[in-house]
Amino acid sequence: MHFEELPLFAPKPQTQPQQAAKVPKPSYWTVGELTARIKEVLEPAFFQIWVQGEISNYRPGPSTHAYFSLKDEKSCISAAIFGWGARKKNFELKDGLQVLCRGKVAVYSPRGQYQFVIDQVEPLGAGALQVAFEQLKAKLAAEGLFDTARKRAIPKFPTKIAVITSPTGAAIYDMLNVLRRLAPQIQVLVVPALVQGDGAAPQLIRGLEWVNQHRLADLIVLARGGGSIEDLWCFNNEDLARAITKSILPVVSAVGHEVDFTISDFVADLRAPTPSAAAEMISSHWLKASTQVREFSVRLKNFIAKDLSSRKMILSHLAARVISPRDRLREQMQKTDEVGFRIFQAIRVLLDRRKALLGHGVAKMDALSPLRVLERGYTLVRDPYLNGLVVKSAQQIQSGQELEIIFHDGQKRVQAI
């Protein structure tokens, strides 16, 4: 790079009063003058240049601007890109990303700092890959591989899913955690495969063919966590895309983060933003059904409790109105006792009355009884041989006849003279 030689600038002379002219004073720059001069020198010299480096200390500003540092193994320079948040872009800036930037060196006068102001940035190596991605995308779209009409329906209530992914990656653990929480009844078959590098696409294809051949699941999930375009490039493989379209079982593509798109996302029957989101989407109907079952269970329990309470109340009212057989028998027994008591009383009254009448009759008969006459000194003569016939006349007695004399206190036998 060519730099022209910069002329030296004499600093301002110090203005001195007439009487102090004999004492030389040092000349000086003000801070603002020095900063302005540096700005004049640097900015025209480093305009529209390309700089390669690694992003570090990435800080998105409260507006749409972004601030970070560009570094290599030797040096580091502050950088800024204005309006980055409002731009349409295919990638995000992040720490550790190798980028190629075009911009200019600018001096920020309030702090006296210089920084690299960027107007264009692209990740290293992403340009060629992006072109290849767009070309393959256009080719497969023209063949109809992205058409909605050819996509298979995802089963609402899968009982077994096959996840083709790295068994040691974070993606499978994220999915298992979600499924264990939302739909633990779903069985998960992990089909090991590389998900990055040159050998990844063939292994993913073999996993698809193996699961389809043996019908090992209700649906297949291709899963991988986020990464750069290079990391996800195996999912942009044309052979893998065609294997997905030939799959008999439905295929869910859960590759990268929400901002990442691969060819497998377009040809799959369902695209999930992340592996965790794929697990949520697969189990959504199970979760909804289980939620409804719990709600119905609570509603049924409340309905049964309310119905039982109502029936209990009705039963209590009926029980209050209905007399039990034991109570009815007790009541009848009490009535029987009362009737018996009244009969007994009536009989007793009747007997007392009859007794009184009898006593009265007896008294009258007693008053008229011959025995009462005998008590007054009279006697009664009877013939013992004529059945105790009372002798009423002396003419009935013959001399020597045996007679029975009855007194009030006994009887004696005598012989007539």
Q: Supply the CATH superfamily name of the largest domain.
A: Succinyl-CoA synthetase domains
CATH fold field value of the largest domain: Rossmann fold
Radius of gyration: 64 Å
Q: What is the CA–CA distance across the termini?
A: 205 Å
**Regions with little confidence, pLDDT below 50 for 5+ residues:** 1-10
> How many distinct domains?
3
CATH architecture of the largest domain: 3-Layer(aba) Sandwich
Structural class: alpha/beta
Helix content: 40-55%
Average pLDDT works out at 85
Tell me the strand order in the biggest sheet: 1-2-3-5-4
Number of strand elements? 14
Question: Could you state the order of secondary-structure elements as H and E?
Answer: HEEEEEHEHEHEHEHEHHHHEEEE
**What coarse outline follows from CA principal-axis ratios?**
rod-shaped
How many alpha or pi helices?
10
CATH class of the largest domain: Alpha Beta
Question: In percent, how much strand structure appears in the residues?
Answer: 15-25%
Q: How many strands, what sense, and barrel or not for the largest sheet?
A: 5 strands, mixed, barrel
Structural overview:
The chain is an alpha/beta fold and about 425 residues long. About 40% of the residues lie in helices and about 20% in strands. The protein has ten helices and 14 strands. The strands form three sheets. It has a five-stranded mixed beta barrel. Strands 7-6-8-9-10 form a five-stranded parallel β-sheet, with helices on both faces. Strand 8, helix 5 (about 240-245) and strand 9 form a beta-alpha-beta unit. The model is unreliable at about 1-10 (pLDDT under 50).
